[in-house]
Amino acid sequence: FWLKRLLEPGGRRSGPSPPQRPGAMATEAPGLLDQAERHLAEEEDKKALEAAQQALTLFRRSNDEAGIASSCRLVGHVLCYQGKHGEADSFVRGELNRVQASDDKAGEAKLLLALAEINCGKRGPKSRAEALDYAAKAQEKFREVKDTKMEATACLALANIELKGKDHQKGAEQALALAQKAEDMFKGAGDKKGQAAALHTVAAAHIKAKTAKAEIEPGAWIVAAQEAAKLYQEQGLRKLEAWEKVSIAQWTMIDNPRKALRLAEQALKLTREIGSAQEASALGLVVNCHLEIKDTSTAWMRKEASEAVKVAKEGVKRFKSKGDKFGEGQALMALLLAYLAKEDESQVLKVAQQAGGVFRELGDSTSEALVLQLCPQTLLKKSQTDKALQAAEQVIRRSTGFQEKFLALQGMYEVLLKAKDHRNAIAVAKEIQHLAEGAGEKRKEAAARLMLGNVHLLQEDLVEAVTLAREAQAMFHDMDAHKEEAEALRIVAEVHATGRDYEVALRAAGRAKRLLLQAGDMEGAAGTEFLALQIQLLMLVQGRGEVPDAKIDPDFAQDCAEALEFAGEAVALARKSGNKKLLASVFCTVAQLHTAAMQADQAFLAVDEAMSLFREMEDQLNMAGAMLIESDVHLISGNINKALAVVNKALTIFREEGDTQGESIALGIVEHITGPEEELVEEPQWSEEEWQRWQQEQWQAQYGHMGGAEPGQGQAEPQQAHPQETAIVKKQRAPKQDTGEKLSVNNLSQEVIQRRLMEIVRFSVDIDDDEEVDCDKPLMQMGVTSKSAVTLRNALSEELPGLNMPFTLVFDYPNINMMTELILESVPAGGGRRR
């Protein structure tokens, strides 16, 4: 009722107002405003809104423009506290239009500041850019009217907006300078509450710089945060004190989860004593601290996960007994995280459904969609793809708003990828793209293009994959979305690596790493460095056809040395990231590099490092993968028996774990060591008539060979067995092989190139040798697909390494004659002979 009345034109009631003395209004309205601020500090949002609206009404009756502006700003704060940012924005903006027409600088400044505070957090990058402008204008106007306290408040708003920026280091430095300036101004004005708020932002700026690996002053954040908590305590603002202590525990968790756990437990105790709404946040933090404690003992980490489950369950029970649905939902979210850490999929599914029901009651569709997303993901982990698909469809049906639909479709896309249903995955990604375009969500539109590119990469449609990834990268770049742009560059790198354009792939991976480091994502940067290391390995072993011997080929030895130097950097970055699985994977690739360089001792050391980490994590499948690399090292050491024993051990693990892909790779290595097994096929049964006819033919052949003697006339009958006795089994025909002569830039002619291209085409699409190949006929009409087009292009690139063959070779030069002309024109001067 109050808000509806205030939103009427001019903010006045349509009916007559009861008379009230101006003196009474002058004293009552400011008191109501102070009361509203106190209620908000005590997390009593309904009482705060009521008091602020009453104050606004009284200020309007007395035409107190300064009071009207202050009341409107406070109403905006309460609405934001309630999560109604859009409503707050509309309310304050309407009042700003009225004040600007009256040329009230102080009132305009307060409302501009209110808009800056409303839009600095959860309304997207465009709104934050507007907020920055509003805060700067407000600060300037407060300076003109010499209102130091409000100028400091505007300065603090600028600091908080800078903290939200994408450039972590620059944003942290600018926020710190502004927050320190605001703290000095509040201190000078004697405003302890404002000073505490500024100190909180000082601490937050230091933390942001630290996460960006650009720490400004070690330990400075804790000094500022503890001083803020002390100031809140001195003023009796216990709930703000509790909020600050929860923040301290959360920031401590970055470096020391064990210490953070003690602080979080103390903060949780305080929130319960004073009845703070921060209790749910403190409970979630205690759970997270348990889960963040890392130990070399897997049993100890499981114990921490069990403790987290216990804490979360107690929280759920407590909030239920209080009838606090919001707290219950947050506690269920914490319980979900704990069960995920325990890898208890059955409980994850059960709790996700419970949490989804609570959020549905609260009308929080975004949180509901978020927890229900865990159901298909958990079912995928249990390899229950069909049930995961059904769960994903259920989430889509329940989704209403844009964000929920986006998350639901994203979950469906992941399920379809796991099921290798690429056709439907493309359809879902296109649906996401259309949804984002309709909502004007450029970031999500770019993400959809990236999803499409990823599917095309899996289908080995490299042209479409790299086109979509580049489009997404350009969009993310324009938005300064560094992490997302890095992900697009990762796909670009993978596409070029698949197409054997290794230099281009390395450049893309290198730029992705720099962007992630700039965004403060150490783990992401380490993962990208691992990708670059894998590309280095591919350059060594795939870019040369036959792998040279590093002991006798100095060029190859030099390439190996450079790759291993790069590997050292990858190991260091993986260590810094703290991701043990990633570090173990890097060691596996390092071992492969040492193997290529014929450095068995170093390769064994790297494999041992990887095995130790995988064993620590009880990761059986990756241990088996490391064993396959170990078997290669035994082979270059000349120990065939040991190699076979190790790979057979890995084969057993793959079979026990049901990993068919790993089993296939292991069998391939066994075949490489022992030689291929003959594939036996049963010979068809002959009838008696066919047998007699065959026997007669054999006798006639034998008779002719013996010079015309009839059987039984001085010669014994040949002892030829029944074909079913000697040819019960026979080897199946081997698959068709490419046996043609390779091209060389030193001996090229139109005839040689055409003949070789025909051979490659025959081999790529399995055309019979007696079938004529038309050199003017488009290759796509002969059966060349996008995948076999890549095979053809790669074959030419290997045989003619000096020539740059584009991904679009088959599309730009669609037949053999056109390709022949391209090759002849591309031969370097003096690099070949034309006839």
UniProtKB/TrEMBL annotation:
Entry keyword set: Phosphopantetheine, Phosphoprotein
Region listing for Disordered, in residue ranges: 8-29, 705-726
Start and end residues of each Carrier domain: 751-827
UniProt name for this protein: Carrier domain-containing protein
Coiled coil: none
Recorded superkingdom: Eukaryota
One Gene Ontology MF term: phosphopantetheine binding
Species per Swiss-Prot/TrEMBL record: Alexandrium monilatum
